[in-house]
Amino acid sequence: MLGTVSKQLRSHPALIPLFVFIGGGCVMCAAYLARLGICSPEVSWNRNGNPEPWNKLAPTYQYKFYAVNLDYSKLKKEGPDY
Amino acid sequence: MAHPSQLGLQDAASPVMEELLHFHDHALMIVLLISTLVLYIIVSMVSTKLTNKYILDSQEIEIVWTILPAVILILIALPSLRILYLMDEINDPHLTIKAMGHQWYWSYEYTDYEDLGFDSYMVPTQDLVPGQFRLLETDHRMVVPMESPIRVLVSAEDVLHSWAVPALGVKMDAVPGRLNQTAFIVSRPGVFYGQCSEICGANHSFMPIVVEAVPLVHFENWSSLMLEDA
C-alpha cells in the first residue's frame, strides 16, 4: 500500500502538504489524548498504587500545558494544612 | 458601554479584554484580506472573455493553496490559544464576590471580611433620571476596587442565567447547584454594563449587571456605608 501511495505522490506532489498537515493534526490529537491519560490529575491507572492522584498536587505543579504569564514556582498553598 | 450603531467591540476595561480586542482585529484583518481576494477572483473569473478547455490539473497551485491556508490557520490559532490559556490563569485575587442569579435580578455577596449582601434590580424605564441608560441601570451597582484582581463566583438560585460584562471580557454561566469562577482586573475607574446572557424567563432582558470600579479608598467607604444601611 505504501508503494502505491509513494508512486501516486511522485506524480502528484501536491498531496505531500496534505499528508503533512493531516498527519500533523492526527499526531496532535493523539498527543492530547495521551497527555490526558498520563498527566491529568483526575486519571488513575493503578487503583492500588495510585488511588487518588489529585491529592498529590503541589501548589507549584503546572497542570496546564502552557503558562503565559504565570510563574508556577511562585504559587503558595491556599487553605489549611491537614 | 455599548452605544447606538456600534459596530465593533466595546472599549476594553481589563487587560484580558484588551488582548481579546487585538486578537479580534487580527482575525478580522485576515478574514477581510481573504474575502477581498476571493471577491476579486470571482469578479475576474466572471468577467473574462478567455476560455481554456485543456487544463486538467496543476500541482503547483494545489501546493500553494494547501500550504497557505494551513499557515493562515496556524497564525490565527496561536494567538487564540495564548489568550485562552491567559484567561484561565490563577491570579491570586484580592477580593471574592458571589454573584447569584435569580428570576429576575442579581444579588451580590461580599463575604471576605464582613457579611455584605444586596440585590440589584433593574431601574424601570419610568423611574429613570435624565442621563441614565434605559434597561441597563440598576438600583445597586457591584462596586469593585480598580487595578485589583477580583474573583467572581457565579451561581443561580432558580434557573440558568449568565453573568456577562463585555467591557471586562467576562461571561460566566450561572447554573443552579454549581459554582463557576471567573476573574478580572479593572484597569481604569468607570461604570461597566452587561446583561443577563442566558434565557431565563419573561424578564431575561431586564436583569442587567452594572460594575462600578473605583479607587480602593472609595470602595472601602462604600462597603462601610452599605454595611451600615443593611
From TrEMBL, chain A:
The keyword Lyase does not apply. The chain crosses the membrane at residues 14-34. GO terms for cellular component: mitochondrial inner membrane. It is found in: Mitochondrion inner membrane. Keywords: Electron transport, Membrane, Mitochondrion, Mitochondrion inner membrane, Respiratory chain, Transmembrane, Transmembrane helix, Transport. It is a single-pass membrane protein. InterPro entries: B12D. Its main location: mitochondrion. Belongs to the complex IV NDUFA4 subunit family. This is Cytochrome c oxidase subunit NDUFA4. The lineage of its organism: Eukaryota, Metazoa, Chordata, Craniata, Vertebrata.
From TrEMBL, chain B:
One of its GO terms (biological process) is ATP synthesis coupled electron transport. GO terms for cellular component: mitochondrial inner membrane. It is found in: Mitochondrion inner membrane. The keyword NADP does not apply. It catalyses: 4 Fe(II)-[cytochrome c] + O2 + 8 H(+)(in) = 4 Fe(III)-[cytochrome c] + 2 H2O + 4 H(+)(out). Keywords: Copper, Electron transport, Magnesium, Membrane, Metal-binding, Mitochondrion, Mitochondrion inner membrane, Respiratory chain, Translocase, Transmembrane, Transmembrane helix, Transport. The keyword Transmembrane applies. GO terms for molecular function: copper ion binding; cytochrome-c oxidase activity; oxidoreductase activity. It is a multi-pass membrane protein. Its cofactor is Cu cation. Residues 92-225 form the Cytochrome oxidase subunit II copper A binding domain. SUPFAM superfamilies: Cupredoxins, Cytochrome c oxidase subunit II-like, transmembrane region. Component of the cytochrome c oxidase, the last enzyme in the mitochondrial electron transport chain which drives oxidative phosphorylation. The respiratory chain contains 3 multisubunit complexes succinate dehydrogenase (complex II, CII), ubiquinol-cytochrome c oxidoreductase (cytochrome b-c1 complex, complex III, CIII) and cytochrome c oxidase (complex IV, CIV), that cooperate to transfer electrons derived from NADH and succinate to molecular oxygen, creating an electrochemical gradient over the inner membrane that drives transmembrane transport and the ATP synthase. This is Cytochrome c oxidase subunit 2. It comes from Clupea harengus. The gene is COII.
